[in-house]
Amino acid sequence: MELKRVVVTGMGALTPIGNTVEEYWNGLKNGVSGANPITHFDPTEFKTQFACELKGFEVTDFIPRQDARKMDLFSQYGVVIATEAVEDSGLDLEKVNKDKIGVIWGSGIGGLKTFEEEVLNLADNNLVPKFNPFFIPKMIADSASGHISMKFGFRGPNYVTVSACASANNAIIDAFNYIRLGRMIACVTGGSEAAVTRAGVGGFNALRALSTRNDDYKTASRPYDKDRDGFVLGEGGGGLILEEYEHAKARGAKIYCELVGGGISSDAYHITAPHPEGVGAYLSMEDALDDAKMKPEDIDYINTHGTSTGLGDPQEIKAIQNLFKEHTYNMSISSTKSMTGHLLGGAGAVESVAAVLAIQHQTVPPTINLFNVDEEIDQKIDLTPNKAKERKINTVLSNCFGFGGHNATLIFKKMEE
């Protein structure tokens, strides 16, 4: 069967460097660090005392208090992001067929704050069970897509993908496939996460995954730098409205770009460490190129997973070099996690928005805090150090990899009639 074309007609973002798509792009192009001392709880006794939290966000500016109290933060973020994306898309909610619009969202952890609060409350009550009646519906990861669908009345496919830090990319790939198979006309997709909690920070500290650069937190997220010491935890998320091309064209929609390919693979190697030869990353990118019917030399920019870890960064670059070979030196590469921190299950969503914006503005966001490139990484590769770079961008590849060996890759392309 002939697959339908899928385009991006709306975007939303809620990030540590901007609470709207416009603010987010300004933060990206100006190389702003979203890292600050943690305010969500007292981090004094923690090895890491900073994170990339949202700034100036008040949920009641967007959601009535009585509704917000029934949602964990990650669901609140999802609803706010989706609202911006739907409004940006210009979809006429009075006329559109809501039976054919879905919500496929991503979250790696779900309601961690809710779970943590209820367990602490149980302990404070000497294990006498006094649970909030909203505990379960707030905590479960699928509640985000449920709340989004209820807000807009979208009755198409509705669920949340969970594949650690690849969750949002997996959600976007699923939405992409449903639309090109003709099962939906549009989908709200992306992801959100709210893991800056005691359990989130403490758990990643126990894994020795987080940076502990408490005295210089603004430069702590430094992908590909030889002095990096771990990733910086972030929160928030991003969203896209994916739409079948002919449907979008018929209603005169603004079209940002086309989504042309998605690739998925598994490392089948280790629960937290990437494959040392980057095999899974290679397969995911290769699968995405094959799906898009593209060659490696068609890619202009790669938004890498680039978490700022000693194991992950070199392996991803190795996979890129193995697949793209000499074309590696013609592309621009950058990690926007240097600015936003790592949004875990929401990472692929904010990075997809960055990929679309890069095409729109013909500008590669920088990898900030890159002072001395790791000796394991080829010094001739353009890692877009510290400053945004204007260049011709027709096609962007965006990677996300997660604990469990999950890999998911997206390819966005400048719109052609």
Automatic annotation (TrEMBL):
One of the record's GO cellular component terms: cytosol
EC number: 2.3.1.179
Gene3D superfamilies tied to this protein: 3.40.47.10
Database matches in Pfam families: ketoacyl-synt, Ketoacyl-synt_C
Ranges for domain Ketosynthase family 3 (KS3): 3-414
Top-level lineage group: Bacteria
InterPro entries xrefs: 3-oxoacyl-ACP_synth-2, Beta-ketoacyl_synthase, Ketoacyl_synth_AS, Ketoacyl_synth_C, Ketoacyl_synth_N, PKS_Beta-ketoAc_synthase_dom, Thiolase-like
Gene Ontology MF terms: 3-oxoacyl-[acyl-carrier-protein] synthase activity
Reaction(s) catalysed by this chain's protein: a fatty acyl-[ACP] + malonyl-[ACP] + H(+) = a 3-oxoacyl-[ACP] + holo-[ACP] + CO2; (9Z)-hexadecenoyl-[ACP] + malonyl-[ACP] + H(+) = 3-oxo-(11Z)-octadecenoyl-[ACP] + holo-[ACP] + CO2
Keyword set, alphabetical order: Acyltransferase, Fatty acid biosynthesis, Fatty acid metabolism, Lipid biosynthesis, Lipid metabolism, Transferase
Keyword Lipid metabolism applies: yes
Coiled coil: none
One BP term from GO: fatty acid biosynthetic process
Active site: C165
Pathway this chain belongs to: Lipid metabolism; fatty acid biosynthesis
Family to which the UniProt record says this protein belongs: Belongs to the thiolase-like superfamily. Beta-ketoacyl-ACP synthases family.
Function: Involved in the type II fatty acid elongation cycle. Catalyzes the elongation of a wide range of acyl-ACP by the addition of two carbons from malonyl-ACP to an acyl acceptor. Can efficiently catalyze the conversion of palmitoleoyl-ACP (cis-hexadec-9-enoyl-ACP) to cis-vaccenoyl-ACP (cis-octadec-11-enoyl-ACP), an essential step in the thermal regulation of fatty acid composition.
Protein name, as recorded: 3-oxoacyl-[acyl-carrier-protein] synthase 2
Organism for this UniProt entry: Jiulongibacter sediminis
